[in-house]
Amino acid sequence: MPPPDDGLERLQKVLAAAGLGSRRSCEELITTGRVEVDRKVVTELGTRVDRLRQEIRVDGERLPDPRRVVYMLYKPVGVVTTNFDPSGRPRVVDLVPGDQRLFAIGRLDRMSEGLILVTNDGELANLLAHPRYGVEKKYLVQVAGVPTPETIEKLRKGIQLAEGTARAQSVHLKSQHKQSAVLEMTLDEGKNREIRRMLAQLGHKVHQLKRVGVGKMTLGGLLPGQHRQLAWSEIEALRKDAISHVGSQPAMSGRPAPRGRPAPRGRPAPSGRPRAGDRQGSRRPGPPRAFGRGTAGEAAPSGRPPAGRPPAGRPPAGAPRRPRKPGKASAWRKQRGK
Fold first, then answer.
1. Residues 6+ apart with CB under 8 A from 243
2. Element (H, E) at 228
3. Which of residues 206 and 50 earns the better pLDDT score?
4. Among residues 38, 109, 241, 278, which one is catalytic?
5. I need a surface site. Which of 48, 81, 136, 249 has the fewest CB within 10 A?
């Protein structure tokens, strides 16, 4: 009796369809314990799985969800990367097939061209676009004039923009002419019109800007307006490249990761213990208190009198207090019952 049509498929067939090899080689992956289904090792041939609902891993690497797609597109000049454009201009999502809701990873302004990835995989988009992961993007930039070595060094050290410092990871003068030059620039973040604004501050107008690579992915033989769907192995290579940058590079363009701000000196930490680096009993500058904390005969910090000696103009401890002026309530009167 044939098995019911329950939407399940044999595990080795799913692995072969994902491009991991022939049915026979995929069976060896299963019998040697290299395949997990929902975090459990499966070694029995003939196991049936739901590819859309179950998580399948091979050697710890997750097979991508077949409902998630990634396209590599050569964006032409004049096409916008936004999904909604009130002016009705052509969008990158109009240049790829499918009826799913897709979006571009990162951005390229309307007058720029080159490689851009279009997907419905939000996790992958975050890995490739967030500055924390430092995925490098390579550009060819044609500028007016020929940048000097000092100008190129400024691009490497950083240019101050309104939202912070922008810097190129690498800059090379690829070719030059009488009145223009072509730079090869590599960046690991994507501020709005970043390259154009950096070069404008240094007196070089950008004539043409083309992105030629994202991570280890390059345009290859694609022409403007053409696209191709990435294979599973290419998607995993992009994912690994992004994860490998975490911890190997400082966060946010070379700036150290922010630390918690210490409390002002003399104020205890929330736990009640003094913070590391604070001296026990130290205080913020201000009016001296009744007595200093120094040892007898030594001047206390901030000009306070030595321990055991009352400040000038104040009666010694134990002496009767002098009543305040009439008409003013005081704690002393309340204590005396007046």
1. 127, 133
2. strand 227-229
3. 206
4. 109
5. 48
Residue at a domain's end among 62, 78, 99: 62
**Residues making up the chain, counted from first to last:** 338
Quote the domain boundaries for residue 97.
Answer: 70-245
296 falls within a domain: no
Torsional sign, CA 56, 59, 60, 64: negative
Joined tokens for residue 330:
């005081």
Global pTM value:
0.61
Regarding whether 182 and 91 lie in a shared domain, the answer is yes
In a domain, 250, yes or no: no
Q: pLDDT tens, 47-101?
A: 999 887 888 999 988 887 777 889 999 999 999 999 889 999 999 999 998 777 8
**Among candidates 66, 68, 70, 69, which has minimal Cα distance to 9?**
66
Asked about 109 being catalytic, the answer comes back as: yes
Measured at the CA of 153, the angle between CA 147 and CA 155, to 5 degrees, comes to: 80
Residue 246 in this model has a pLDDT that exceeds 70: no
Pair (75, 47) in one structural domain: no
**What separation in angstroms does the CA of 259 have from each of 120, 193, 255?**
34, 30, 12
